[in-house]
Write a structure and sequence with these properties.
This protein is an alpha/beta fold. It contains seven helices and six strands, in the order βααβαβαβααββα. The chain binds 3-methylbut-3-enyl trihydrogen diphosphate (2 copies) and magnesium ion.
Amino acid sequence: MAFFKKKQAGEAEIDLSRLPKHIGIIMDGNGRWAKKRGLPRTAGHAAGAETFRSVAYYCRDLGIPYLTVYAFSTENWKRPEEEVSAIMDLLRKYLLEALEKMQKDGFRIRFLGDITALPEELRDLCLETVEVGNQVDAKYQINVCLNYGGRDEIIRAAKAWAKDVAEGRVLAEDLTEEAFSRYLDSRGIPDPDLIIRPSGELRLSNFLPWQGAYSEFYFTDELWPDFDAKVLDKALVSYQSRQRRFGGV
Ligand code: IPE
Ligand code: IPE
Ligand code: MG
């Protein structure tokens, strides 16, 4: 039986019984959004962070169990120091808010990426957020990709696996895709069913290359601060119109 979300006349309906279990979003276009308004890029990041909050709650309310957002890539350190530190400040602000609300609002947060390279205060806050989140009996998990690069994740996983081989904990010939997945930051999280990139760019930019091997993609021109429930609904309708074959017929 299908459960349809009520829509206005003329709009396609979302089947609530066939939602993706895991959505990934590349939150792109903050800088261009600010530029269009004659504002500094940092204002775009502040607006984008607000969008993140509302989209995260919308996914929770729809009943999607996992949301993974790309917040800061291993390549984003190339940006001016002022912009990087403004992004770090925003992360701090939203994590503090999340820490306060997780229990009441029923979600937990995890991080993908090498958080050891973050400013110490932010890194400690990430660790605390994970610890507090582990106490929450949550049906909804947000994964924040922070200092994340898919290639970096795979290299770190390969090093950890090689160490286990060298120290005799595992046998090289036993390696399988499933066994290797357990060395990735995403261990325990199902692969994303749907990956969304706003801002008109048609690329992955190092976002979940391993996990996204069989994901469906949705690209849209809205800049991230303009992204809202309506755009997400469109992505879901598109996702539900597709036939996933995973190599079969
Ligand atoms: C995404 O927006 C946010 C981060 C990468 C941190 P951008 O800052 O990349 O915005 P554009 O792509 O320059 O518009
Ligand atoms: C990808 O966006 C990273 C995040 C959204 C955090 P970028 O703006 O950094 O990617 P490119 O430079 O357009 O590939
Ligand atoms: Mg960008």
